# Entry
Amino acid sequence: GARRGAAAAAPGAAAETSGPPAAERIPRLSTSDGVPVAAWYYPAAKPDKAAETAAPVVILLHELGGSHESVAPLARDLQARGIAVVAPDLRGHGDSALPSDRGADARKSVDFRNMTVTAGGRIRAEADGRGDVETVRNWMAMKAAEGTLDLDRRFVVGSGVGAAVAAHWTVLDGTWPDLVSCPQGGQVRGLVLVSPT
# Structure
């Protein structure tokens, strides 16, 4: 009995059964029109400790009336497979509340254009218009600079209205002109639309 208990407490035993890392709430992000965007980051599980490459990443967008919580099961499944996931609450959903000065009708409406906007100027990092998904993308670019995420292996998954947001933002992402030093857009390698509206 005592020996079996000692073996269970051995270092590394808990790590084998603990599963992927817990989701992390990203510090509050803000769009160019002043909407705070709440988002959660699911770091990729690393099944092979020798692998030091940056993880592919999925931007996971929820359905109308949903939030990051409604896509959490898919996020955890992708995470367990070695894929990092960022799941934002789109404006007016979950913890991404619209400012109170916009009126009740505006807070309830789906502000599709401002969820997807990415425009203004020729240098993306200095763009005048940054919507919900673009704000998340900019946070991901910071993580990519740290070597955590691979933006060349970025995928976008959306459900319902989130699918329409995903498709529209992906098209806008591809319109940014390349710089001499690097591409500014067009790095989405796959788009998955679940029950698109």
